[in-house]
Structures are given as C-alpha cells and as structure tokens.
Automatic annotation (TrEMBL):
InterPro entries: Glyco_trans_29, Glycosyltr_29_Sialyltrsf, GT29-like_sf, Sialyl_trans. Involved in the synthesis of gangliosides GD1c, GT1a, GQ1b, GP1c and GT3 from GD1a, GT1b, GM1b and GD3 respectively. Pfam families: Glyco_transf_29. GO terms for molecular function: alpha-N-acetylneuraminate alpha-2,8-sialyltransferase activity. It is a single-pass type II membrane protein. Disulfide bonds join C117-C266. Pathway: Protein modification; protein glycosylation. This is Alpha-2,8-sialyltransferase 8E. It catalyses: a ganglioside GQ1c (d18:1(4E)) + CMP-N-acetyl-beta-neuraminate = a ganglioside GP1c (d18:1(4E)) + CMP + H(+). Keywords: Disulfide bond, Glycoprotein, Glycosyltransferase, Golgi apparatus, Lipid metabolism, Membrane, Signal-anchor, Transferase, Transmembrane, Transmembrane helix. One of its GO terms (biological process) is N-glycan processing. The keyword ATP-binding does not apply.
Amino acid sequence: MHEGPYEFNCSTCKKFRQDIMDVKVLSMVKTTELFKRWRSLQVCKWEQNKMETNSFKSLLSRCCNAPLFLFTTKKNMPSGTKLRYEVDASGTLPIRSEIFRMFPDDMPYSRSQFRKCAVIGNGGIIKNSKCGKEIDSADFVFRCNIPPISEKYAVDVGYKTNIVTVNPSIITERFQKLEKWRKPFFQVLQTYKNSSVVLPAFYNTQNTDVSFRVKYMMDDFGSQKPVYFFNPQYLLSVQRFWALQGVRAKRLTSGVMLATAAMELCEEVHLYGFWAFSMNPSGIFIMHHYYDNIKPRPGFHAMPNEIFSFLHLHSRGILHVHTNPCRYSACVEIHGETCY
C-alpha cells in the first residue's frame, strides 16, 4: 500500500491527469465519471509546472494584462476620456475631474508580485474543510462578494483578506443603495481589516452611482481602505478569453475574474471553495454556499464550465484546485499558537 501522496509527475499521476485532460468538454462524460477521475487524482501531490504556468501567463498578459488594466486608474483612464460600459455598449461615461479624482494614480500591483495567493470562492465545498489556517498562510488572499468570515466560519475560510469584491446588487438589496443608513455596510467592510474593496462600477449604468457611494462613504468615515473599480475593458477581455476556452456565459463569476487576475499577479495560485455541483466529489450533497443554500439566477453564469476549466488547469500544474479537507484539520497548539 502506498503511504502518502504520489508525486505529481510519476507515471500513475500522469495517467490520472491525462484522464481529466481527455474530457475535452463537460458534456462528454457524466458528472459521476468526472468526479471519479477527479477523486483518483487526489492521491497525487500537486506540483506547479513552471513552463505551463508561464505559457498561460503569457496568454493572459497578451489578452488582458491585469498588472496594467485590472482597475481604472488615472494612467489607463485619463481625464476627459469617454469610458465605455461593459454591457451597455451604447452608453459612455465622460471621465470628469470629480470621477478622475477617485482613481488611483496607477495600478497598485505588479506582475508576479506575490509568491503564493489564495482565491476564495464561496462554494459549499469549503464547509468543514478546516482550510482556514492554510488560507491565512498565503501571501495574498482574494475574496468574492463580502462573504462572512466571522469566527463561525473562519476555521474553514480563514480571516486574512487583501482584496474583497462587492457586487452592487448586494448593496441595493441589503443596504438600500446606501441612500439611508451607511454605518451597517461600513461595519461589514471593517470585518476585512485593511483589505482593498473592488466594485464593477462600470458593468452597466445602474452600477455606477451605488459604487461611487461606497467610495464617498469610506472617505466620509475617514477609512484608509482603498476602493477600486474594475476596468470594464479588462473584464471584457477576460470574458472573451474564457469564451475561447469554452466558458460561454452572460457573465463570468467574480471568482473567475479574481482567479484570472491572480494568475498574472501571483507566482502560484490556490483556489478554495470553487465547486459548481450539488454534490462534492464523493457524491455527498453540499450547500450552494458555505453560509447559505441560495442558488444564483439560472442562465446567467456558467459555473460548471468554469470549474471544469480550472480542473484542467490543475491537471496541467497551472493552479491548484482544493476540494479536500486541509491538513490542518487537527486542532493543536504549535509554539504557543492555538489553531482555530
């Protein structure tokens, strides 16, 4: 009986990896068969393939270039420019001085600036994973749509946050578009300590004012937390890139957008909480999110195809998709530090 994980490049693991790669499109196999192949691959200790990773980064650099265009900046969106919205193609927004002032001078991050990054999806697959400590050990952590990271969840998802996105629909539905009391929303953002807040202000015209209110609110409360807006041209480029990889949707999920950016900004990318199926790889039913079971509106995202693409990237050694419980699952005290 083999003890411990197999090396990623041993003959057994090469076969298991090829079994995943042989599924060219998701509809080729039943979900149960895909799960079986993915479970087999879990005996292999993931290892980054530098050549494959650098090749994929080059593709992303040519199509999208997150280090220059992830956010709107004074450099890539000069004053006087007419900004084109992501989906309202006919709509433009003149970048007048009061808007221009909200942009950073330049992008705050550079290519491969961070060694190890964790991108945290909100999928139910992360519940009971005990991955919190492993996530918090990453050099940079991305989170989507202000998910809960209270003590109740931290053992699985950790606390550390460097970037958190906010979908304006959340502000509209839960915080009355910030037209009334703003402190409850401000307190939610304070949960993420010194992280940057990122919004798709220019997805469509409806998103703009409510996104700007977040910036105004943070300034009014004297917060040092940076507020950034996704560059709509960057998001369009990412949408086109993944469409060529077979992920065609009205809108990519926030998780895919962040994972795509992370692959340019980080040397090594680890995904947690990314899963788009009602069962985990062992066939056990799981909640849609780790904190609730509310499903997205049908037909908007293409989550199974997104995850399928990431399983391929994992098999090629480009990023690491975590679907198993983490090794830190036993709570012990090490050097006086108590784990979650």
